[in-house]
Amino acid sequence: MKIVLWIVLILIALLVIDAKTPAFAWLSKLIARPDFNLINSFPPIEYGPDRLVPKMDDDGNYYYETDRALRVMQLTDVHFGCGLFTRKADKKAMNAIYAMLAAEKPDLCIFTGDQIYPVIFQSGTFNNLLETRFFIAFMEHLGCYYTVTMGNHESEIYSPGSRKKIAELYDSPENHFCIFKTGEDIAAGISKGRTGFDKLPPSVQKTAISTEIKDFGYGNQVIKVKNSVGLITQAIFTMDTHSYTHGDYFGILYLYDGLHQTQIDWYEETLQKLAEENRNVLAALQEKSGGSGADQVPETAGGESAGSCMPPSCVFMHMPLGEYKTAFNEIRENNEKPTADARLVFGSMTETGKREIYCSVYPDSMFETVQRLGSTKAFFCGHDHKNFFSIEYKGVRLTYGRAIDYFVYRGIGKQGRQRGCIMIEAKPDGSLTITPESYYQDKYSGVFPKETDIKDL
After folding, report:
1. How sure is the predictor about 296, in pLDDT bands with cuts at 50, 70 and 90?
2. Which among 207, 238, 319, 443 has the fewest CB atoms less than 10 Å away?
């Protein structure tokens, strides 16, 4: 009865208090219950002396320098609740993350959205700021280098923290292991680069930049993998697929946003710049050795528009591209068998029992751009917790991550087929290996015992 009364009072407050006011922030803190002490139950991840440490280029992009394969772990849809109803679920999620990181010791962990879940009816809080701080504190304590893309739940309309504020928490200089970048400088530069921008009144310029940043999103960045001679052998993109759209402010109509054209243009321009960077490195090698330096180019590097110097790449984001749906429907209509364009590499699709894919309601030109440039060989997304598959479609791998979620979907805490991680190796020749890993393998041992009531393993 007390819980019902609390919910009624909170609903009344939501109706009468603006989400950005101090009163609302105070209320959200009052009902949030993040157990920061629980973080200390997990020891930091132990890495050896040969650990790879990301550095930053003069152009402001993080990069790894290695002649071995870079090991990347994808985790998705963690959904830390940090509220009145989620202590047990949060503890299980922490245990799963720790167990997989401790066993795999990846060079980089990429979380593809919905790290938090400020939906009061299920988590018991709407304080996305405290939830994000809890997630960051946990990852900083574990000591694994990581970055994130933001999902639709990162910035609910009734939460006190804006998407910008959440991005700033990740991009804080206080974080030692998070290599997330807000990308605001990129978006502002796009606006300033438009013809006639400098002739606009200052107030109009400010509004234009603000609009550009919102359109561009937060967390669009590229992480480079370079070999010992300085050639980029892999470009890892993270891109913001934004949140809800078409007036679906509370996300109850499943109307999701996706990539905007500004971002797709930036993706293409960035790849062209990386190709130019590789050409400059090759020219320097040629001048130094008298040879062509061509033997240093990764064998799988593609991109006819920029010659063989455009590095191979992969893209991480939260919402799936529309091509995920197109490819799976093509296979499904062919009695689950491969077609000329699509083949199922692993996994299955069981989202909400309807075998549905909740991609953006907007069509976009991303996949066409990828095919034209020939660089990106794989996409990795989250969002649909029970969709767990990887399809090769027109030469590009489309892969779902394995969701951590213990409470958001009804009964998912006792379902484990989808729970785990994706291990990716970005090899020196530019190729990728993509391996799905179940959390319920013996090699993954957490601080606390795993749940034993899983029904679908």
Report:
1. low
2. 443
In whole angstroms, what is the distance from residue 199 CA to residue 21 CA? 36
Average pLDDT over residues 242-263: 89
pTM recorded for the entire structure: 0.91
Question: For 243-375, where are the E strands, in sequence order?
Answer: 313-316, 342-349
Q: What percent of the chain is predicted at pLDDT more than 70?
A: 87
Pair of tokens at residue 119? 């939906």
CB atoms within 10 A of CB 246: 11
Q: State residue 292's pLDDT score.
A: 54
The b/e string for 266-299 (b: 16+ C-beta within 10 A; e otherwise) is bbbebbbebbebbbebbeebeeeeeeebeebbbe
* DSSP class per residue in 183-250: -HHHHHHHHHTSTTGGGS-HHHHHHHHHHHHHHH-S--EEEEEE-TTS-EEEEEEE-----B-TT-TT
Instruction: Report the percent of the chain where pLDDT is more than 90.
Output: 65
**CA distance readout (Å), 424 to 71, 107, 108, 300, 456:** 6, 10, 10, 16, 25
Which of 245, 442, 274, 218 minimizes the C-alpha distance to 359?
A: 245
C-alpha torsion sign, points 9, 10, 15, 18? positive
18 has a pLDDT exceeding 50: no
Q: Token match 């799905």: residue?
A: 436
Hunting for tokens 């405290």 — which residue is that? 130
| β-sheet bridge partners, residue 313 | 235, 376
At 352 the pLDDT is 56
From residue 192, alpha-carbon distances to 14, 79, 206, 208, 398 in Å are 38, 37, 10, 9, 34
Residues in the chain: 457
- Cα 142 from Cα 139, distance rounded (Å): 5
Distance CA 209, CA 164 (A): 14
Distances (CA, A) of 300 to 235, 268, 285: 13, 18, 20
Helical residues (DSSP H) of 17-52, grouped into ranges: 22-31
Sheet with 146-149, side-by-side order of all strands? 146-149, 108-112, 70-75, 420-426, 432-438
Q: What are phi and psi of 110, to 5 degrees?
A: -115, 120
Task: Give the whole-angstrom CA distance, residue 94 versus residue 239.
Answer: 25
Distance CA 2, CA 342 (A): 53
